[in-house]
Design goal:
This protein is 12% helix and 40% strand. The protein has 258 residues and is mostly beta strands. The strands form 5 sheets. A 5-stranded mixed sheet has the order 3-6-4-5-13, with no helix packed on it. A 4-stranded antiparallel sheet has the order 15-14-16-17.
């Protein structure tokens, strides 16, 4: 009887393994993800990375260890956590999130420190077709960052230039940029406002993203400089916005004021 159960178990495992589909993910034209949504697949993806900042999103998750193996232990991963309108500039606050790993379909910027090259990822992964765009608004302007699941021209959107991008500067796509956005790349769309210059701000893990990251609705806070001196007492959100540009400590958190 034990032998029978063992054979049955091995047969079931073999059937399960054969049922897992092999998925070669396209990083250019795109892949019909609806066909694989919610399935565990033997997925393989080869993505070309440039030295510096790249936009990046995958329809499955990667752990920190898997990113280190694929992109090098000195790679960095950041996600958009807020925006701040400063004059004619829109500051994009990106925060280090490598320790949490890469979530499926979430748009990121990825720092790759190697030479320009194809990087291959192969794993058994749960595929998701669900979009995970993020949006933030400030002073009447809404900024949305999303992933291109298939190639599109992206006219009017902003993207990171492919080469020599040490600052993750987002540039508006116009008629001179013919390739648009390939699959697994990310783009930014700016709505309900005048054309703006997008500036990228990099924040460490746990660092506050700015005034809007501090919960001040209905209450006031004390503000200190980095030397521990109090510079404002019972300040509300309007008072915080009037502070001189710099880094302050509010509610025990470092806050960048632009």
């Amino acid at each position: 009887m034990k032998k029978f159960y063992f054979v049955a178990l091995m047969t079931l495992m073999a059937i399960t393994a054969s049922a897992q589909q092999a998925l070669q993910l396209s990083t250019y034209a795109g892949t019909n993800l609806q066909k694989y949504d919610g399935q565990e697949c033997k997925v393989t993806v080869t993505r070309y990375l440039f030295h510096g900042w790249n936009t990046f999103s995958l329809p499955f998750a990667l752990s920190e260890d898997e990113m280190n193996e694929a992109f090098g232990s000195d790679c960095r991963l950041e996600r958009l956590v807020g925006v701040e309108s400063v004059g004619k500039d829109m500051v994009l606050n990106f925060q280090d999130c490598k320790a949490q790993g890469m979530e499926a379909n979430v748009p990121y910027i990825l720092w790759y420190n190697g030479e320009n090259a194809n990087k291959r990822i192969a794993k058994l992964a749960l595929i998701s077709d669900a979009p995970a765009a993020v949006s933030f608004s400030d002073k009447g302007t809404t900024v949305t960052m999303a992933c291109a699941q298939k190639q599109f021209d992206g006219k009017g959107c902003y993207g990171v230039l492919a080469k020599d991008n040490a600052e993750a500067k987002f540039t508006k796509v116009d008629e001179t940029i013919t390739s648009g956005f390939f699959a697994t790349r990310c783009y930014i769309r700016v709505e309900n406002g005048n054309p703006m210059n997008l500036l990228t701000n990099h924040l460490a893990a746990g660092e506050a993203t700015g005034i809007d990251a501090i919960s001040v609705a209905g209450k006031s806070v004390d503000v200190y400089n980095l030397s521990g001196q109090k510079v404002a007492t019972k300040a509300n959100k309007a008072t915080l916005r009037s502070l001189a540009p710099g880094v302050y400590v509010i509610n025990g958190q470092k806050v960048l004021v632009k």
